[in-house]
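Interim report, section 4.2 (structural modelling).
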Amino acid sequence: MLSYTFMQNALFVSVFIAILCPCIGIFLVLRRYSMIGDTLSHASLAGITLALMSNQSPVLGAFVFTALSGALIEFLRGYFKRYSDLILSIVLALSVGTAITIISSGRLRTNADAFMFGSILTVTQTDIYLVLALSVFSVGALILLYHQMLYIAYDEEAARVAGVRVKLINYVFSVLVAAAISVSIRIVGVLVLSSMIALPVATALQLEKGFRKTLLYSILFSVIDIMLGLFLSYYLNVAPGGFTALVSVAMLLVVMSAKAIRTRIQIARGKPGRA
Amino acid sequence: MRIVRICCFSTDIRQKKEVRPIITAEDLYFSYTGAAPYLLDHLALHIPDGDYVSVVGDNGSGKTTLMRLILGFLKPTSGRIVLTAKRIGYVPQRNDFSNAAFPITVFEALDSYRRLIGLKDRSAIDDSLKQVNMAEHKNALMGTLSGGQAQKILLARAIMGRPELMILDEPSTGVDMNSQEEIYAFIKRLNTQSGLTIVSVEHNLDAAISNSTSIFHMTNGHGHMCTPRQFLEEFLNTSRREHDHA
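Predicted structure of the assembly:
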């Protein structure tokens, strides 16, 4: 299986997805912004269709459009203070409306289905370079802004008092979310992309560790989910995105069950756990 | 407002001398819409360096708005606030700070904050934890701590970097009685021994009267500074009048 070039490409990109998605996802989940991940992954479809229509790289198109959508969400957050859930509906309407209009116009010279469901056959050499560049940029930015982003998620007021430029970092974070999404769309697909952002983090949170360990476990679960998803989808001949999402849910259920069993054992031994 | 128990007045009766103001607010107006009615209406405030000021008032009197303006979270509609303190320690209200499920250890919470305020000395974490008697909880998850323990960690975080001004938002909220006594004793020690200026938004009038050097009493967006004794007299007179009317 690994002798095929398309599979090597898919594997290479998957490693980056597995690292980048939970790194971004942990901040989205902990700030209760999981739905922003979902909205932006749908927004990327508009970028893909615009890029395909104008013969540009769909990964680049997704990155630019998603980053702009993320910045728009951040801008509208100040405008719709009392109805913040409206913001996601507005961005979703704009992006999905754009995508559907372009797809239904018949102006696309290629099929956009591969981006909706994910495909291991469509990863090109250009995509690999773009994915590599976006991943290195994103992980570098995350390392540089780790403490600022941790504190904005944990205690935004304390972050402000400590001199963190919250608004600016929120805009940078929107760009990082856009990078994670555009890196992932080829393999995972738009429809289940948010599962790669949120589910490994949800699984790691079950372990009740500190932030750094939760992040590392999120990456570990993400690697397991996406590798299992990739290999099994190859043998089952199904889309890797959908199957990876199923593996992620299964992993979460396994960890939740193991935690419940451990708690019961601890109670039976007269030593109740934290859960 | 109700006083449950009055221990004693602040024993810190210092010689009043000319000291630099640490917070000065003049002709301050604030409303979220930018027009009347104002939550803060023609307010003036002068807090000298080294004071322990409790900001008290009924719900809606504007005390939290004032604190948020001092911290720079809000901008005045008109008027100005001048802070001469460069290093500020902040202890949020525990009800607002309800992120108990956040996966973070005490060490991580303090270490990241230390880096944000540009403090290179790693031993500041252990030092501040020792000061609030929480050294043994260094590796605990924040979410597993009791209300009093979590409040002590927030205090430890606030004193890292040796602030010139500490702002607290209702420090006794969600804290058991024993921990409240410990926390107020610690805050008062910071004020009397280290000369740290304290501004504490208080609903606990007992603590305000017992510990503060001055009380800023707010009513309907206005405020005036008084001594704890004057505040108590005002409070008793108001209560007496209300009782007579009833």
